[in-house]
Amino acid sequence: MRQTAKIRLRDVALLAAVLVLGAAISPSRGQAAAATRDDIVGQLSRFDTAPELDLAGLRQKTQERSKIRSRTEPPPDKRAPIVPELQSLPGFNVDIQFDPDTPIVRPQSYETLGRIADALVHATLLPYSFLIVGHIEANGKRESNVILSQRRADAIRDILVNTFKISVKRIQAIGLGEEQLLDPAHPTSAANQQVQILTVAKVSEQSEPPAGAPAAGAPPPAKKSARKR
Q: For residues 128 and 172, what is the distance between their CA atoms, to the nearest angstrom?
């Protein structure tokens, strides 16, 4: 009986060790079932019409709302979306890992950003421009959350532009803090820290003049004076 008990205890200990090891080597949140490039292309390409977005005005509006201290201000799960126009745009949510309370992207998320970059230069998406939207769960100070979410959205944009060479003209960024929760029913859920990539506009097509032809609006070339013999 004692030997059987020892075997069982040893089995329990072995199982516990396996579970701990599995947790240690398991991929970080959002990395296990990461979207492929084609998945991203499919979600971002369903573009119809572009809303009028004044990003500078929206940043100011978001910052001002985050400073409200009124007793009548509704709790996070009852607040109306601050930019409801974004909800009708094609896009997807992605987990990007940051160092705590900083805009520093952790190395394990660069692979995810690489897949996003590959999607953005796919022929299907080349005619479009995109918006990176940063969010934070409803913890801490609202005003600080808006600032951090903007810095994180800017950091992602900078990585896509500087590291993966996506045209800066095709990517903008805005941070909404906790003012437009992705999971309003659970304000402190980690899902509210996800980043959104949204298709916001179609890039204007500019026809290039054929080689040797003057560009539109360019003055005609000056006539060469005849040489005297």
A: 12
- Contact (CB, 8 A) for 25 and 108: no
State how beta strands 195-202 and 171-175 pair. unpaired
Among residues 129, 111, 108, 107, which one has the least CA distance to residue 120?
129
> Which amino acid is present at 164?
F
Is residue 26 a contact partner of residue 32, using CB atoms and an 8 Å limit? Answer: yes
Rounded to whole angstroms, the Cα distance separating 147 from 77 reads: 20
Indicate the pLDDT class of residue 34, thresholds 50, 70 and 90.
confident
Q: Write out pLDDT tens, residues 68-117.
A: 989 899 999 999 999 999 999 999 999 999 999 999 999 999 999 999 99
Contacts with 50 (C-beta within 8 Å, 6 or more apart), sequence order: 200, 201, 202
Name the pTM for this structure: 0.75
Q: Of 1-5, 34-38, 144-148, where does mean pLDDT reach its minimum?
A: 1-5
Other C-beta atoms closer than 10 Å to the C-beta of 96 total 23
